[in-house]
Design brief:
By secondary structure, this protein is an alpha+beta fold. The chain is 46% helix and 15% strand. Strands 7-6-3-4-5-9-8 form a seven-stranded mixed β-sheet, covered by helices on one side. The protein has a two-stranded antiparallel ribbon with strand order 1-2.
Length: 309
C-alpha cells in the first residue's frame, strides 16, 4: 500500500505530461484546419506513447476542450474542419498523381536521390488552389545541376507557379544534397513547430538507394515514417562525383543560376529564415511564415493549457 500511494503523484504527472503533449498537435494542426485521428496524433508524438494511452487521454481529460466526430479530434466548436479535411483529401490525391508524373521525369537525372511532396501539415491536407511543393535530395556536389534540370523541365511544361496562377503547379524551392541530410541547422531554434510538423509530413514519392531512409536517420526519425504506398523505387545508378568535367559543369551552372537569380532572393540570401543558399542546400522561400505560425501556436496552446489545468 505505501508503494502504491507513493506512485500516485508520479502517475498524475505522467498523465499531465501526456495531455500537454497531445494538445500540441491538436492546436498546431488546427491552424491548418486539420482534425487528426488518434493514430495520427501518436505519429506526431514520435510514438513515445502507446495508441491506447493516446486514446484514453483524448477520450478522458481532454474532452474538456476538444470534441470528436467520425474518429477525428478537434478543438471545441471546430467541427466544420472535419468536412474540410474530407474535401482536401480529394484535392491532395489529384495533386499527388500530378507530382508522381513529374517525379518520373525528374528521376531521369541520375543525381536525383529522393523526391517528396512537402508542406502537407496534416495527412493529405492540400488546398485546391495551391501549388505542389517538392522537397528534393540530390547527390553531393550536384545540387545546382539538379535544380537546373528540374526547374527547366517544369518551365518547359508551363508548370512553374506564378503570382496569378499556382493551382497544381510545381514549386521547386527546397533542395538538399546527401552532404547535408541533417536539417537541424535550418530550424529557427528550440521551438519551431512548423519545421517539426513539416518534417514529419513529408510524403516521399521517389526514393533511390534508400536515400530517404538515410535522411530519416540523419533527422532522428524512424524508417516507418516512410509512406510506402506512394513510393516509387528505382535501381541506383553509379555516378562518380569526382568526375572533373561534371564538376566543372556544376560550377558553371551554379554561377549562371546565381547571376540570373531574382534581386529579392539575392537580398535575402543567407540572412533570412526562408532563403539559404550553399552548395549543399537550396532553400528559396521568400515568404517563410514559420515565426508567424510559432507565435500563433504558442498563444493558442497557452490558452488551452490554462483551460485544462
Amino acid at each position: 500500500m505505501p508503494n502504491e500511494i507513493k506512485n500516485i503523484p508520479s502517475n498524475l504527472e505522467n498523465k499531465k505530461k501526456l495531455i500537454a503533449e497531445i494538445l500540441r498537435p491538436l492546436v498546431f494542426l488546427d491552424l491548418f484546419d486539420f482534425p487528426p485521428t488518434a493514430y495520427e496524433i501518436r505519429h506526431y508524438l514520435d510514438k513515445k506513447y502507446s495508441l491506447l494511452e493516446v486514446v484514453e487521454a483524448l477520450d478522458g481529460a481532454l474532452l474538456e476542450v476538444i470534441s470528436k466526430k467520425n474518429g477525428f479530434y478537434f478543438l471545441r466548436d471546430r467541427e466544420d474542419i472535419v468536412t474540410t479535411r474530407k474535401i482536401r483529401y480529394n484535392y491532395s490525391c489529384q495533386k499527388i498523381k500530378i507530382a508522381k508524373k513529374f517525379a518520373r521525369v525528374f528521376s531521369l537525372l541520375p543525381f536525383i536521390k529522393t523526391i517528396a511532396v512537402a508542406n502537407f501539415i496534416g495527412e493529405h491536407n492540400l488546398r485546391e488552389e495551391g501549388d505542389i511543393d517538392f522537397f528534393i535530395i540530390t547527390s553531393a556536389k550536384r545540387i545546382w545541376l539538379s535544380r537546373l534540370f528540374c526547374a527547366g523541365i517544369a518551365k518547359l511544361l508551363n508548370s512553374r507557379p506564378t503570382a496569378k496562377n499556382k493551382k497544381n503547379k510545381i514549386c521547386l524551392s527546397f533542395y538538399v544534397s546527401t552532404a547535408h541530410l541533417d536539417l537541424s541547422d535550418l530550424k529557427l531554434g528550440l521551438d519551431d513547430p512548423y519545421f517539426y510538423y513539416w518534417l514529419r509530413g513529408l510524403l516521399p514519392i521517389y526514393n533511390k538507394a534508400n536515400s530517404y531512409t538515410q535522411f530519416l536517420q540523419a533527422n532522428k526519425l524512424e524508417f516507418n515514417n516512410l509512406k510506402s504506398d506512394t513510393q516509387i523505387n528505382y535501381q541506383a545508378k553509379k555516378i562518380s562525383v569526382n568526375n572533373s568535367p561534371i564538376n566543372l559543369l556544376e560550377k558553371i551552372v551554379k554561377n549562371w543560376q546565381l547571376k540570373i537569380m531574382s534581386p529579392a532572393l539575392k537580398a535575402a540570401m543567407n540572412n533570412s529564415d526562408g532563403v539559404y543558399i550553399t552548395d549543399s542546400v537550396l532553400k528559396l522561400y521568400l515568404g517563410d511564415k514559420r515565426r508567424l505560425f510559432a507565435d500563433k501556436f504558442r498563444f493558442k496552446y497557452d490558452e488551452f493549457i490554462q483551460k485544462i489545468n
